[in-house]
Amino acid sequence: MVYGILAYLLWGLFPAFFPLLEPANAVEILSHRIIWAAVLMALVLSATKGWAELRRASRATWLRMGAAGLLIAANWLIYIVAVNSGHVADAALGYFINPLVSVLLGVFILGERLRRFQLIAVLLAGVAVLWLTVIGGHPPVLALGLALSFGVYGLLKKQISVSGAAGLAAETLVLTPLALGYLGWLEGTGRGTAFDHGPGHLGLLMLSGVITVIPLLLFARATKAITLSAVGMLQYLTPTMQMLWALFVVQEHISPQRWVGFLLIWVAVAIFITDATRHRARRSPATPPRDPSAG
């Protein structure tokens, strides 16, 4: 739980960081995130002698790690576009929806069971998304893209047998050739920003790799230790921080109709968390686990 909370608190601070990387475009920022994260993870594996774990990984594991890399890259790109185009509230909505996506994936893919009030919460959140789609005239594309990409990423992380550090290293290393190719093309055509806006700008682009790695390592540790549903519900820390940023820092306008949708989602969250808290309280005085050797 502690690892998950720390990861989501760090992600909640991201809207303050990515506007600092302008005038780099979203794909250039994404490419730097991938490359510098890969460099950092290569150093981590070298220091911890973790390369052997990747050498032993099966082909199926590598395919899952590659797919996870593509999903998290898509999530990063959508998020950068949302934040740097002044749609922080849309990003927050995506991360409000994502925990419910994680719950549904846990139910239908991993066989996790929902209690009655959890099911009510999921259905209510579905109504909220439908409402936001109707009043907007089109689906909340950025929000749904963030929710689905990160939800499926979390599902894959549950199914990858390597450690969090090795998995993250593989995800970034698989994407590094594409990122290097894109940055090479940008610099070759004079469209890159890394070396044209002073050492401070380059330093911030390099720092994007560090701030990418730390919460993802914490998230990977959390997904190994707690259920996918619990991972999803912890995530509400991040969009709450993002929504406060959208309202009070960048002062985005949110229509009353959209507030209705957000309110429905918050009610769904409250129902889910209340049910989880009561269920945990009822189980807390339970007897110690039975010894399997006792037959």
TrEMBL record:
Intracellular or extracellular location(s): Cell membrane
Name of a matching Pfam family: EamA
Membrane topology term: Multi-pass membrane protein
Signal sequence segment: none
InterPro entries: EamA_dom, EmrE-like, RarD
SUPFAM superfamilies recorded: Multidrug resistance efflux transporter EmrE (SSF103481)
Ubl conjugation found in the keyword field: no
GO cellular component: plasma membrane
Domain of life: Bacteria
Keywords, in A-Z order: Cell membrane, Membrane, Transmembrane, Transmembrane helix, Transport
Membrane spanning residue stretches: 33-51, 63-82, 88-110, 117-134, 140-156, 168-186, 198-219, 226-247, 259-277
Domain EamA: 2-133, 141-273
Family to which this protein belongs: Belongs to the EamA transporter family.
Record protein name field: EamA-like transporter family protein
UniProt source species: Corynebacterium oculi
